Amino acid sequence: MNAVVEGGVSKEKLMQDLRVVVADAEELLKATAGQAGEKVTAARERIQENLAAAKVRLADAEEAVIAKTKAAAHATDEYVHANPWRSVGIAAGVGLVIGMLISRGR
Fold first, then answer.
1. What range does the domain containing 8 cover?
2. Domain membership flag for residue 95
3. Interatomic CA distance for residues 37 and 35, integer angstroms
4. Which end is more exposed in the chain, N or C (fewer Cβ atoms within 10 Å of the end residue's Cβ)?
5. How would residue 13 be classed by pLDDT, with cut points 50, 70 and 90?
6. What are the pLDDT digits (tens) for 43-74?
7. Which ranges of 33-105 would DSSP assign to H, the alpha helix?
8. Is 98 inside any structural domain?
9. Is residue 93 one of the residues assigned to a domain?
10. Cβ(1)–Cβ(69) under 8 Å?
11. Are 71 and 6 in contact (CB under 8 A)?
12. 99: in domain
């Protein structure tokens, strides 16, 4: 289940991008560890606080996506068990359409 947020970007892509930003910020903090000065120290502290908060939000978002994915899988499983022949028919129809599209491309 790939939920789309405003602007057509999926939540999974957004979380992946946030992970990259967090990793880059951590790398930047390590690279500037030897820098001195009040402004640099204050900026580093602020970045570390924001980074910690971003990690918490990212973990929460990942948990929410996992929960929604499990719920969708459970609902699909229940539907297939309740309607086995309809599910087989749908799968056969989708397979037929995909087969026709593939054969057109040749």
1. 4-81
2. no
3. 7
4. C
5. confident
6. 778 888 888 888 888 888 888 889 999 999 99
7. 38-82, 84-104
8. no
9. no
10. yes
11. no
12. no
